[in-house]
Amino acid sequence: MIPLAALASAVLLVLVLLQPRRADADPITPPATCQVPGTEPSTPATPQGGGSFAGVTLSPTQTTTVQQILGVAKSMNVTRRGAVVTLQAGMQESTLNPLARNGNAVGVFQQIAPGPWSSYAGYDRTDAAAASKGFFTVLLQRAPGYETDTRPNHELAEDVERSGEGWRYQHHQAFAEAVVAALYDGSGPPLDCADRSFKGRIQVTVTGSDVTLPPEAGAAGVVHAASPQVATAIAAGLSWLGITYSWGGGNADGPTKGVRDGGVADSYGDYDKVGFDCSGLTLYAYAQAGVQLIRPSDAQLTRAKLAVPFTQARPGDLLFWGTHHVAMYLGAINGQPLMLEAPQSGDVVKVSNVRTGGDFRNVSARPIP
After folding, report:
1. How confident is the model at residue 187 (pLDDT cuts 50, 70, 90)?
2. Which 3 state secondary structure label does DSSP give 16?
3. How far is the C-alpha of 349 from the C-alpha of 241, rounded, in Å?
4. 3-state SS assignment for residue 12
5. How far from 145 is each of 79, 82, 167, CA to CA, in Å?
6. 278 is catalytic
7. pTM, 2 dp
8. Of 96-100, 296-300, 361-365, where does mean pLDDT reach its minimum?
9. Strand partners, 202
10. Residue 289 CB neighbour total at 10 angstroms
11. Label partner for 127 (CA 20 to 30 A): which of 247, 253, 305, 352?
12. With contact defined as beta carbons under 8 Å apart, do 268 and 345 qualify?
């Protein structure tokens, strides 16, 4: 007969090994980069969730989403009121998160395809610009006279969303009006925005397409990116230098607790540490530049828009080892090829020399061709 203690241990091991490997642990809210000014400081509004109106903040991802929505609004000749209605809906439905999912409901506006008049079909609903075009299409169909419509904004938003809880949108009207006033045509007070490259625990200086390595990198020099967008991704990753490695940790908004792996990572307690693993770090960095990557590391190569030999790699490209590791290339600094990586359990996010031995794949993926 098998001793009860041994049987219990075996069952426990099986449960650990079968535990879902999902990086859905408690997220850390990234440092806010923009504060929304109150249009009337003497009578600040209070959006749902508490906090003074002047204290409502936008993360880097939210800022990019707002800019995309307003860009589409202007291209479709949607007025400022229409833009305000749209931001009210987006804030309530997803907190302006283009990657939000709830069953079949996807994206900023939680659209379910195909939608009325098939307005939500034929595009990636996690693309904030495409999703906002779908929203505006329905708004213009259901409320063509929205600009002079006597209904309150939240009822216009509900006319599009048909959520059954349209009253909730009204809590975000003051917020949406301030953002639109600041960004739609510049008629209102500007958003109080820090440099959008200052996203993590340390400050990183970006000038155009050049990223200055911070002291925490352990190397002095400037990374010359191909574009400001790539520079944004590089700076975003560098801003988390020194944070702990956490297997399964990190998402588009920043570091998170890791998850259990039933092995080495568990022995280091990664499931209870807040940080990034290798693909979580690169996913986060490019999310700040408006590019969606997925896990695991190997998928960031197989689904890359462009892959080139390592000899043609540019700063910001992704480098790979086997199917288990990815790092961000920083280029040759003072003659030494460097990379940014979250290496392994027990280590931290850091800048390292590029390792070209072992199972190095000698190829680089370019998320922004």
Report:
1. low
2. helix
3. 5
4. helix
5. 11, 10, 21
6. yes
7. 0.53
8. 96-100
9. none
10. 23
11. 247
12. yes
